[in-house]
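Worked example (supplementary).
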Amino acid sequence: MNNRLRDAFDSPGFIAFLTGGDPTIEDTRRFIGVLARAGASLVEIGIPFSDPIAEGPVIEQASARALDAGATPEKIFGLVDLLRTEDHVSIPLALMTYLNPVHHYGYAAFFARAAQVGVDAIIIPDLPWEEQGEVRDVATRFGVALISMIAPTSATRVRQIAREATGFIYLVSSLGVTGVRSSITTDIASIVAEIRAATDVPVAVGFGISTPEQAREMAALADGVIVGSAIVSLIASHGAQADQAIDDYARLMVAAVNEAAPSHRPGTRP
Amino acid sequence: MTILDILAADARARVDADSASVSLAQMRAQARDLPTLIGHPFERAVGAPGLSFICEVKKASPSRGVISSDYPYLDIAVDYEVGGAAAISVLTEPGHFLGSDSHLRAIADRVTVPVLRKDFTVDEYQIYQARTLGASAVLLICSLLSDTQLSEYMELAQSLGMCVLTETHDEADIERALTAGARIIGVNTRNLHDFSVDPTTGTSMRHLVPADRLFVWESGVRSHEDIADVVRAGADAVLMGEALMKVPNRAALLQKLRRTARHVQIEDRHTSSDAPDVPPVRGTRGPGVKICGITRHEDAEALNQSLPQYAGFVFHPASRRHVDLETALDLRSLLDPRILTVGVFQDAPVADVVEAVEASAVSMAQLHGAADGEYVLALRAAAPHTPIIKAVAALDAGSIVDAAGVGADYLLVDSASPGSGEGFDWAWLEEARLLTDLPPIFLAGGLTPDTVGEACRLGVHAVDVSSGVESDGLKDPAKIAAFIAAARGETRQERKPSPGRFGVHGGQYVPETLMHAVHALDEAYTHYKDDPDFRADLDTLLREYAGRPSLLSLAANMTADLGGAKVYLKREDLNHTGSHKINNVLGQCLLALRMGKTRVIAETGAGQHGVATATAAALLGLQCEIFMGLEDTRRQALNVYRMELLGATVHPVTSGTQTLKDAVNETMREWTTRPDDTHYVLGSVMGPHPFPTMVRDFQCVIGREARAQILAAEGKLPAAVVACVGGGSNAIGIFHPFLADESVALIGCEAAGLGADTPRTAATLTTGSLGIFHGMKSYFCQDEVGQIAPVYSISAGLDYPGVGPEHAWLHDTGRATYVPVTDAEAVDAFEYLARTEGIICAIESAHALAHARRIVPAMSPDDSVIVCLSGRGDKDVAAIAAYRGRQVEED
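After joint prediction of all chains, the assembly is encoded as:
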């Protein structure tokens, strides 16, 4: 794991997702700056895909908006490049996209470019553990962490996936697709415990988290809290003027996550 | 007393005897009078890149006795030099090794490579003596000397410009040698106390010697395998004696051993340094493969998938596959590190080759044109690490023999016009082998996936291909994969698709949340498909509910009208619910019940599959929810009402293009929400494993019946089976039982919409490219950045941007062919069948019929063609009327 990524999980972190190019690439660039200044530990940038089968309506519509506005993988790479070289954003950045755009770009070319612009990790929801061989070698070769997901239904697969995980583990909090949920009923603590038995790679919980209360609760159990749809909703309603709303929300969530930190550090690693 | 003690005592006695005639002072003065050796020739030679060979001249040894009775020591030394020895070691010990100082003097006078005096040094006298005999280096054996002696003698040798090979046997020796300042450490794997040889000693001790010192492997090396061990242990040099002494052609053996060392080094280099954990590419069977002339990112990606041993960059500017150094570097950075890159040059200045090597664009050089022995020597001197392939445009056996004479590491034998796709007479190669000792061969010239298998039987090092894996002048990933598979001895028949994989296609590309569900389904299906009760229940349902077997009808009027082969129609339109879809839904709903599911969900495009699923759910008491694009619910309002009549809930899908693919997306999303009590009844041979296999198995009833029926009717197999392909379930169902019947042409008809050359099309295999979507790897219609493209066809059932993975594989292997059929042709066929046969078929099936109309007239009346009439056309009547400009809407 590279240092940027490892340092991000020194204490429980707030991980923000937004869709690259929604409403424009320039806006996304500014929003990421806002998130970084507000204390986000890591930002996931979605490369929009026409058919995002793991997403709920909020992110799916954001993908459609971004595609309509002309977002492409290459433009997202350009965005990351500017964030690193001109905006001096130093927190880790992850890409989140589906396998087809990566395949179409060319696996080696995609990861080479990602590494070149300063991407630290990639999340590919339709690439389960069994199929990771598609890109595992190139990801390793170019030093981009391939993030594994673990779901409430992973059952006997939890340890298997955890053992080979790199970067951090994306623990899916709930069944279904991304989107705001009023409550999370999965026994996160016991899945985290099972992951801990197999690896000391940090665990971040995502899917359905939107309120500071939920964030506090999840941060007490894991190393990071991933929030996507709630932020994307702010962008959907405020458009290019979402800076302030994102800032307010992110600071609230960062504070909530930090509150959980001192009392409970399940992921403390040797 | 050990032998070493005896040897040491004898050495001391010799020193005493020698100094009686020439005193130490005189010997010192003689040595000091000689000019100091400049530049440490021995160390430089031993430390040259690659594995250096220090070759030993000795008449006998205590362990082996007399090795060479006639002992032509000068000839031996010259052979070594010719064979490429970096240095020569001469045994001067007279008592046990039958050596002599005079041998050393004569050899040192004769050869140009540095010479080591191999003796049992116990006194400074011997070091001065060595210098006067012409030695460039002396041997110091750690265990014979004190720490003080070690460092003093090293310093002394150094002061005379000589180098010291310090021989060690264990960790403590190495420690002492390093402390004394040894620069060249020899590890003797032979225990001099009892003469046993432990080959693991060298390997285990390598890490004790720092990288800035030289590591020499002594003793125990006899074979090419041993050399491989030495190289892999990371030795800088190997000291060899006996094994070389005993053969008639020492120079040739030495050359071969050096070649072996070089090959091992090359093959291992990337795996050992760049990518520590990856296994070497080289398969266990068959020769290596070199894919030559790669120019594009796509080529690199394709090579990464199939992993040939070598990739070639053509630097010759006149070639149409020419790349510049910058492009080659870019491609090299994308290529899997296990693939070695070869720079292809024609009469380029040595400096150009060296530049490509030093930039790390290539690790081997392939020389076309006039490159001769002199050129090879110059290149070797400038790039000693780089294996050289001499390319020869073979005219006859003689030309191959001549090319072997330039002294390259490999020979690439090509046709007289390289890159043209032409071959040469392979008998020349055999002939040349009889005439001379050829280096390992790269075989090139007109090889293709079909011919490479035979070429591999020639016993060559590698096969080389360029135009043979191209389509329209560009590298074709499918041909590359086929070529490599063929070279590795995997024939298409042997390459049985693994469960869930059809060639590269298929797989399980779904979110983690669904993995448990697809695994559970796979497990349940694997169990129940062979369960007699399950089979019996399904057969009963198919027979007594769906109305199977369906008829195979001779279309007599159509046959008469077309005037060619007999046309038979497989009448899936006569099934309950009016299409082949019922075969699959009965199977899946029965399976869902067995798995304890209480609810089924399904996508539907035109509504056929939705209606079928709702029907089976009603019959079997399952809750049913159908997802249908909003656009489609409007176009097929009648079917929406049908489903509701059958007790299903229909959810209009408002995302994306609001058609079939979006309905699939939404059904998958729904499944991730409730995988426990819900089974997803996927409607075609698509999606993640096990769906493509399971749905095929359920649909194979079509082909099994059709095959038996045609044999009963005609007494022989049909010439062709034609079916429409969207996802491809009716087509795979009728094709599959005919797969082994190679005489039967299998033809899938894709919906071309307004034309496969227009954007308004759904002809995936004709226009799509490889991708991953809806849980599978297959061909998809997609745009230039990999977004799934909107597709169009008049047929809602074929209006899908992908195709089932098994069809993609049948397309790759050529076992089935796929043709586009336009809306206009399909509508014509729809009307034609209605008029000639009195059958209103589904517009989907009309695509297959349209193609049958094209091919049947030219076929023999003795032959027959089966067209799969996958469904009935009531649902399409209004749309066809609208296409013809008539309004016949029911409201």
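Two points are worth noting when inspecting this output. The radius of gyration of chain A is 17 Å. Chain A is about 45% helix and 15% strand.
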